[in-house]
Design a protein that fits this description.
Number of strands: 0
Largest sheet: none
Order of helices and strands: HH
Number of helices: 2
Helix content: over 70%
Strand content: under 5%
């Protein structure tokens, strides 16, 4: 059974990026240039963001896991 502190920090690690990303998305949608964004650009940005997210998660896990 895992201690409660790890679950709480995991919840923060999930909610904080969602709130920040949501704020950025709302700001982007309020700009007049938003209607000119092509679908291929959205797909490319989504893929790049997913790759950066996986890399950041791996880096955090690398430093947080105990050394063998």
């Amino acid at each position: 059974m895992q201690p409660m502190i790890q679950r709480r920090s995991l919840l923060t690690a999930v909610l904080l990026p969602l709130i920040i990303g949501g704020g950025g998305l709302v700001r982007l949608m309020n700009e007049p240039r938003f209607a000119q964004i092509r679908t291929v650009d959205v797909v490319q940005l989504t893929g790049s963001g997913a790759c950066f997210g996986v890399a950041m998660l791996a880096l955090v896990m690398y430093f947080r896991l105990p050394r063998a």
